[in-house]
Amino acid sequence: MCGIVGYIGKNEAKPILLDGLKRMEYRGYDSAGIAVLEGTNISTCKKEGKLSNLLSALESQEITGRVGIGHTRWATHGQPNDINAHPHSDCRDEIFIIHNGIIENFHELREKLKKHHELTTETDTEVLAHLIEDEMTEGVLLEQAVQQALSHVVGAYGIAVVSSKDPEKIVAARLGSPLVLGIIGEGEFIIASDPTAIIPYTREVVYLDEGEIVTVTPKGYDIRTLENITVTKDVTKIDWDVAQAEKQGYDHFLLKEIMEQPEVIHNGIRGRLIPEEGVAHLGGFLQKEEEWRKIDRITIVACGTASFAAKIGATMIEEYAGVPTRVEIGSEFRYKKPVLDDRTGVIVVSQSGETADTIASLREAKRHGSLTFGIVNVVGSTIAREVDSGAYIHAGPEISVASTKAFVGMVNIFALVTIALGRQREMSLVTGQRIAKELTDIPKLMDQVLALDKQIAKIAKKYYALDHAFYMGRKYNEPIAYEGALKIKEISYLHAEGYAAGEFKHGAIALIDDRFFSVFIAPQDSVYEKNLSNIQEVRARGGKVIAVTTEGNTDMENFADDVIYIPKTLEMLTPLLSVIPLQLFAYHVAKLRDCDIDQPRNLAKSVTVE
Ligand code: M6R
């Protein structure tokens, strides 16, 4: 996730900016840069890759000055390279800006700006620099120009801006992406998107709220709303240490990432979903819209957690778009003789975009002339570069080895792909609108499920010492059974198997005894009654049952030992909610078993070997 730092004061800005960027490294990034003002002269340096590349470049470039901004970029628009790295500037290199977030209407703004500006990068951020340039006419202050420019923007941002036309000043604003102002002393301030960059200098901070803009000069700071109303804010004292700050107060990255899931859904649908029209505007899909219209079957290839998201996607696509769809795991697909042709669409799914088996499968599909589409989190990764087109998940960096937020991000994109494919075919406007509306509501429903954390921690205490578990579900929640079992295996080393609930009676039921517990994912959907019969089969043999079901279905308390309720949503979207209790359960079991949650034994975040 991108990181912002800005400094204004009595000391040289460069070392403070670089220190801030170093402290935000844990967030993940793929390029970094700074811009420093000395009088009306602005020097800038930016480099692809790790901070060490920026440091090497700075060895041969003298940069001095007491006002500056710095950024670590996690690419969302355009490759991670020197040109796309922040800061970005206007046509005359008088205004420099760093930005976290996504500008939704950037295509539209870019098209307008192109007529009289020279745009040199692929980023959404650059349009902001040119918008500010347009507003910064004679006598206009930087903060006024920023305020005006932001009125044209739709999307999410945390920004910091400096300008040689109005030096000795940093203007920063937030809407949907955090910013904190640190008060170091008289005339000395630091601003950052993450308190980790601030804590070594001061613990006195002011948190900016949504829609606020701050102007910082050596004389002090002034906070206003985007509508120019002055805001008076309390100074707060940070009482976290640096390690806690990196995890934003959570004990583990895994828990932090689980809690970020509502935001992942927001980021994935932002600017892409038009609920009133019942359509999904996925840039990568629209690029190849005519080719996708001709596709009469789909193969999805992925590994691990991504393959479970793929299974949910396949069920969605078949049910709502009517296109026959199968899922293959990468390690198998690459060695089979796949039946592929130019009427087969191949979707590859990967958080890292670097999984060797998935890459090999993609290349095989391309050799057969299939149309390929990537659902990928890491921008500019191998898969993202090699597919014909695709859609980024926008989950931000996933630091914990076990995947959580990327999984829901993938399912989210599959819902968009389903709408896009469906509306090309038989899906009615009403169905498109219904899915879009329900998907838009998912983040707030996720918040309700996340609020069950304490209840789930209590349930974990009852089961953590057992050695075996079955996870079972049907239809949309069969893959959730696999994912729930994988999560608990990965992080707590408790042996668990995911099963299609109806298949269990064909053999595995023999294992039920008092060392086992079973987790049923049984929302009130089209297969609820079937699930209930399977629960009774387990209970009849003395098996303990934890059930995840729909709010209000208190009847389940007669059948299960523990019940976790999730809110009602459209059946195809239930996995986005039902997976959360299983992630939290795995987390609490792992904690009770004293496991290394963020870095489980024997696992790597990205499996780049066969
Ligand atoms: O980066 P990818 O999504 O391609 O990774 C695929 C799997 O290696 C990954 O999902 C793995 O199963 C995780 N450890 C799951 O938590």
UniProtKB/TrEMBL annotation:
State the coiled-coil residue ranges.
none
Q: Name one GO cellular component term.
A: cytosol
GO:BP terms for this protein? carbohydrate metabolic process; fructose 6-phosphate metabolic process; protein N-linked glycosylation; UDP-N-acetylglucosamine metabolic process
Instruction: Please name the catalytic residues of this protein.
Output: C2, K605
Keywords associated with the record: Aminotransferase, Cytoplasm, Glutamine amidotransferase, Repeat, Transferase
Q: Does the entry feature the keyword Signal, yes or no? A: no
Instruction: Kindly list the places in or outside the cell where this protein is found, as annotated in its UniProt entry.
Output: Cytoplasm
Q: Which residues form the SIS domain?
A: 288-427, 459-600
Q: Give the matching Gene3D superfamilies.
A: Glucose-6-phosphate isomerase like protein, domain 1, Glutamine Phosphoribosylpyrophosphate, subunit 1, domain 1
Main location per the UniProt record: cytoplasm
Q: Which reaction does it catalyse?
A: D-fructose 6-phosphate + L-glutamine = D-glucosamine 6-phosphate + L-glutamate
> Into which EC class is this enzyme placed?
transferase
- Record's InterPro entries? GATase_2_dom, GFAT, GFAT_N, GlmS/AgaS_SIS, GlmS/FrlB_SIS, Ntn_hydrolases_N, SIS_dom, SIS_dom_sf
Enzyme Commission number(s): 2.6.1.16
Every copy of the Glutamine amidotransferase type-2 domain together lies at 2-219
Give the record's subunit note: Homodimer.
The record describes the protein's role as: Catalyzes the first step in hexosamine metabolism, converting fructose-6P into glucosamine-6P using glutamine as a nitrogen source.
Q: What is this protein called?
A: Glutamine--fructose-6-phosphate aminotransferase [isomerizing]
